[in-house]
Amino acid sequence: MNSSAKQLAGSVVIITGSVGNLGSATAHTLQEAGAKTILVDRSQDRLRENFPDLVDSPDHRLAGGIDLTNADSLAKMVQSTCERFGRIDAVVNTVGGWRGGKPVHETDLADWDFLFGVNLRTTLLCCRAVIPQMLRQGRGKIVNVSSRDGLSGGAGYSAYSASKSAVLRLTESMAAELKSSNINVNFIMPSTIDTP
Questions:
Q1: Pairing of strands 183-188, 140-145
Q2: Which residues contact 44 (CB under 8 A, 6 or more apart)?
Q3: How confident is the model at residue 84, as a pLDDT?
Q4: Other C-beta atoms within 10 Å of 148: how many?
Q5: Which of 1, 9, 92, 15 minimizes the C-alpha distance to 47?
Q6: How many angstroms separate the first and last alpha carbons of the chain?
Q7: Given 51, 116, 160, 187, the catalytic residue
Q8: Helix or strand run (H / E) with residue 91
Q9: Is 92 exposed, middle or buried (0-12, 13-18, 19+ CB in 10 A)?
């Protein structure tokens, strides 16, 4: 077992968007390293279909029915996670979405609302939900998924790029605020992930 896997063994990690391709790959990698995972999705049925071997697992939790755009829903998930596992060592926010193709003046406002909701609001609310627990513990790690498109705008990508850029700035601000509390906040910036 390498040193990274040793560090992860027994840790308690929340993964949002765990049914998606990136979230699922993250979940499997952490589980292989010995982490206890809390897999979050809107649908309990989807979680059961994608992780049938974890349905009754004492070391993992399928947290279905969680609305990541609702602070109360997240607060309940964090509370029940702490009641079951006693702590939260890390959270990985993989939930997100993409829409694009039109110039700014033609992009429907509903697409702007959707992208800022799914990319920024979910990340913000999940971080706000776990940080108080991490402060009480005196440690924690947060990893947010942004995108290389958050570094610069491009034709037809305005709403997506702006929402992912906001994730970058949010993450940088939290990192500065929390570093003295032994809470590491980082982002990753994948390029296009070819998924269905």
A1: parallel
A2: 62, 64, 65
A3: 95
A4: 12
A5: 15
A6: 33
A7: 160
A8: strand 90-93
A9: buried
Which mean pLDDT values do the consecutive 10-residue runs of the chain (196 residues) have? 67 94 91 95 92 93 93 96 96 86 90 93 97 97 86 85 92 97 90 61
Any catalytic annotation for residue 160?
yes
- Contacts of residue 80, defined as CB under 8 A and 6 or more positions apart, other chains included, come to 63
Confidence (pTM): 0.91
Specify the residue for token string 């305005």.
Answer: 158
C-alpha of 48 from chain center: 19
Tokens standing for residue 141: 């790690």
The CATH code for residues 3-188 is 3.40.50.720
Check residue 143 and give its pLDDT.
Answer: 97
